[in-house]
Specification:
Largest sheet: 9 strands, antiparallel
Order of helices and strands: HHEEEEEHEEHHEE
Oligomer: single chain
CATH superfamily of the domain at 62-175: Electron Transport, Fmn-binding Protein, Chain A
Radius of gyration: 20 Å
Distance between the termini: 64 Å
Strand content: 15-25%
CATH architecture of the domain at 62-175: Roll
Helix content: 40-55%
């Protein structure tokens, strides 16, 4: 490739780095600081963005066999309405661990704790779960892979929701489309 041909490629690469890579890295750094320091205005903005934009987009793949995010199905404690937000569900030997990046004061967590049950769709399988309990990072870390521990530790996530698969339904595998209600 001649020098003349290389110039447009280098110009394009420089622009890509300047307008895409750098802003993404800056945004990621702001997110890490906001989550670690629990800076409320940024957390509220991120939560609103996720609720209105990112979550609806993620729901097309969430819970699927080849996607990292699962879905937690629960009923509103006041409205009685069914909700399905995407979550990060880490499987354990008897259930799941769900990181709580926004803390314990989110509606879906209050709904699950009040009901004492929900269903989690993860990797294409629907699991009825019970006994929701908020646990500390120290209690959760032994169940997390080293990679996930580093990733969630970077954001300073200190609380997790621990749930157990229903014992009487542990041999039954409910696939996508089945009810999965407890």
């Amino acid at each position: 490739m001649s020098t003349k041909q290389r110039k447009p490629v280098m110009r394009w690469l420089f622009r890509f780095i300047k307008w895409v890579v750098v802003p993404v890295l800056v945004l990621e750094a702001v997110m890490v600081v906001a989550f670690r320091w629990r800076y409320r205005p940024i957390l509220d903005g991120v939560r609103a963005f996720n609720k209105r934009i990112l979550n609806p987009a993620m729901m097309k793949r969430a819970g699927g066999e080849h996607w990292y995010a699962g879905v937690i199905r629960h009923t509103g404690r006041k409205s009685g309405k069914e909700y399905e937000p995407p979550i990060l569900a880490e499987p354990t030997s008897d259930g799941f661990l769900i990181p709580l990046p926004y803390g314990e004061h989110v509606d879906w967590l209050k709904n699950v704790l009040a009901a004492g049950r929900c269903a989690i769709e993860n990797k294409g399988v629907n699991y009825p779960v019970v006994e929701p309990e908020v646990v500390s990072r120290e209690e959760a870390e032994p169940f997390l892979s080293p990679r996930r521990r580093r990733q969630l530790g970077l954001y300073g996530i200190g609380k997790y929701l621990k749930v157990k698969r229903c014992a009487d339904l542990s041999n039954r595998v409910a696939h996508k489309g089945e009810q999965g209600k407890v």
